[in-house]
Amino acid sequence: MSSVAISVVGMRALTVIPGQIGSAAVLDVDEPDPAQGDVLVQGLAVGICGTDHEIIEGLHGQAPPGSERLILGHESLGRVVEAPGSSAVTPGDLVVGIVRHPDPVPCSACAHGEWDMCRNGQFTEHGIQGLAGFASQRWRAQGDHVVRLDPALSEVGTLLEPTTVVTKAWEQVDRIGERAWFSPQTVLVTGAGPIGLLAAMVGVQRGHDVHVLDQVTEGAKPDRVAELGATYHAGDAAEVAAQVKADVVIEATGASPVIRALLGHQVPYEILVLTGISAPSPELIVDLGTVARDLVLGNGVVVGSVNANKRHYDQAASALAAADLDWLRRLISRRVPLEDFASALEPEPDDVKVVLTLE
Ligand code: BGC
User: Fold this and answer.
1) Which of 165, 274, 353 has the most ligand 1 atoms within 8 A of CB, as the residue to mutate?
2) Is the distance from the beta carbon of residue 125 to the nearest atom of ligand 1 less than 6 Å?
3) 109 Cβ inside 6 Å of ligand 1
4) 194 prior amide bond cis, ω within 30
């Protein structure tokens, strides 16, 4: 076992009682249990995303068995403190923890390392579902559940996890496209939050003509899109979809009216990937017959895509390494110390990604 020295004086973590609104608190917590893995990591930062907000609002999340509180945080970045000699990581390495663990049964997908496709729902997720998250000053993981990052990404490494959601979505596009001749040119991304912007970034890296739709007309979102060399739209989703006629649409808002507009304007052989987690919208009327007819007559595909496996983490690490580091830095709107988590959770008008620092 090799290790680097760190000062250990209590450990602080952002915690929540799942299902209980207003329970989020930074507290002293126990050192991570060695049973969680033989790689000990010093937490450097965590990104905050919509899922964290949902957990804090009591809508989602599950504490580990036997605990009342869940340590939040799944968009991690840390530095290895201790790792066994046999491990692929060594002390000092910059790492990100993989969010989801396979279900214990395991189902056929998890048995193949494709835990992002878990079929029985018994998977666990750090900071979300039954496993301590990464918003703590130290955390542990098994050596095969951490991914080493290029040291140049030390300021932006928390963007790896959201990028894995995107690289998985792009992999779905390629695999579905293989059912026939496929050479996508035009891509529409709906939503210019972190997932949408990272999806656009990968689309540009792949050489596509990328269009991004969001609501705001100025500020960080249109600026980041323009810097990518992509086209920004701030209009009605149906009009933009009809105008762009994209081969691939990556939906990253989760907003039901946007999804309805996209379903109503599919072009033949389009692949529409849904990545946002929508709220129920029983008031929204959709003519399913027309949607189904258009899908059939146009060989259309609508696919849901969540989470990511090890392959997508490796793809995401390559995508970030190939990206413009200054552009990635500009995606992080604010860095807030752990103890001030409440201000990190309070959205500011031009926020793209807010990061909690843990040191
Ligand atoms: C995370 C995914 C996770 C999903 C559902 C997202 O915010 O990025 O890794 O699977 O939430 O829990």
Assistant:
1) 165
2) yes
3) no
4) no
CA of 51 to the centre of ligand 1 (A): 7
pLDDT tens string, the chain, 359 residues long: the values are 666 665 556 799 999 999 999 999 999 999 999 999 999 999 999 999 999 999 999 999 999 999 999 999 999 999 999 999 888 999 999 999 999 999 999 999 999 999 999 999 999 999 999 999 999 999 999 999 999 999 999 999 999 999 999 999 999 999 999 999 999 999 999 999 999 999 999 999 999 999 999 999 999 999 999 999 999 999 999 999 999 999 999 999 999 999 999 999 999 999 999 999 999 999 999 999 999 999 999 999 999 999 999 999 999 999 999 999 999 999 999 999 999 999 999 999 999 999 999 98
Eight-class DSSP state of 32: P
Which residues share a beta bridge with 46? 76, 356
146-181 burial code (b ≥16 CB/10 A, e <16) = bbebeeebebbbbbbbbbbbbbbbbbbbeeebeeee
Ligand 1: atom nearest CA of 50 is: 7
Q: Ligand 1 centre and the CA of 268: distance in Å?
A: 30
